[in-house]
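Mods, move this if it's the wrong board.
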Amino acid sequence: MAIDTSWANVSLLCPFSVDAQDVKGKVVTPLNGAALSSAVGTPFGAGSAMYFDGTNDYATTPAHADFALGSGDFAIEAWVYIAANSPADGGGNKEACIAANYHSSGGWALVIAGNGSTTGTGIYLSYWNGSSWTTIVSVTTTVSQGAWHYVMAKRVGTATQIWLDAASATTGTNSTNMSLGQLMNFGGISTHTSYQKWLNGYISDLRITQGVGRTVAAAPTVPFPRPTISGHVYDAAAAPVAKTILVRDRSTGLYLGGANSDPSTGLYTFYPPDFGEAIVERIDELADPVTDEAVFDLDPSVGAVGGTLPADTRAHALTFLGDAKISTDALSFVFDGSGDVIQSTSSRYTLGTDDFCIDIEFYPINGGRGSNYARLFQLGANTTAGTLVIFTGTTTPTIIEAKFWDGATYQSLANSSPTTYADNAWHKLQLRRVAGVFFMTIDDVLVSTSATTAYNIAAATLSIGANAANAENFYGRIGKVRISRGARRAAAATPTSRLLKMPADSGSGENALIYDRVIPGG
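Not the wrong board. Structure tokens:
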């Protein structure tokens, strides 16, 4: 058995293997071309890492108290691969940022040092007090290019260290209060006008641990542990089969989510929120459970008939405007085309440039329009950079379109035309992005595919049934709505029979298994 004894203290963990997501739930967005690449594999073999081209590529996540390291213990760890020299910064040095929590008023940065000709002359951790940088700890050991290196900066008490490949360390004494939890950058310091320090290379398995200084005897030989449940499902003839598995917390009995096994291999994977014990149950019916990738899940059936819901099933607060309400059959939300909207705000809705999947059940009346171009779904506000909209057309029966506001104009992502969707009937829509390509499937038919894009969906405010200004209102009913952020859900179109469909009662669950704090491969 292998678990991460520091898990409760982990502030950020980005494997950068399947997507840019932080395992702890913070939104990480790659910008200006930063993207996953398998060109050099990972420190542990084949696979992907986050690539930065040395110009202005970086990844970022919003300010958070978890990044205020204070004057206590901490550990900042990452695997770094320098592909080529960085451009010279404002001081003429070719330095490369691994991670920086920087603002003009203060912050810190972990940097691969450089001089006027070479990147990789050492490593240092510095603190910015609002007017000048102070080195907390540094090492002058060469960081060779064209190879993976394990880098760690840590403090225990007042003893500060930098480790390179867990074989070369330097120790100092420092009690600087690194108190500001600012915007976090990886691969460059976007918020510093003169010393941006763009990395030309790759980052893998980046982790920040607060309140504990890690003990390291050797460079890790496997990725940092994350809670993972995986296994296979077979039928009575021992052949791989597609089935639904549900995961419950063993202590509380609460439902954590689920997954569907692969029909060709029988493999399923689920990422629980912690290293606690869980029970895995298989049910006979293939369903569509809420998975660990779901960042929003709105289900009218869990509310009171004719009423509203305080939150979605992921515990995000909801605001009902107008008289949007749950239908009398508890299967949908009713929108009268005149000011009805459901709104919610969370940083988790910021999809960035990641793969994602949006699922919506909708039932149009009068073409779905209380006004022209009625919104089914909107992330952001009209004419605000980073906004995504899904809306009805101006005909009856209606077409469905999806667009992105890039700061100057709406860019078309998907358009069902000439296919239209009848009034007074249920339809099921799925908008997915895979490696920059958008796919729109309605009623189990792929109706539109985009060219490859690099659109950054930066908004954090969700509106269902209207736009953020309560105009362009939808007329009809909307059923379940789910947003999933991650490669697994985005990679495969979900058949109509499974879209947002939860397991029926009396599933067998005959092969319940206890997951006893085991990390596969740990």
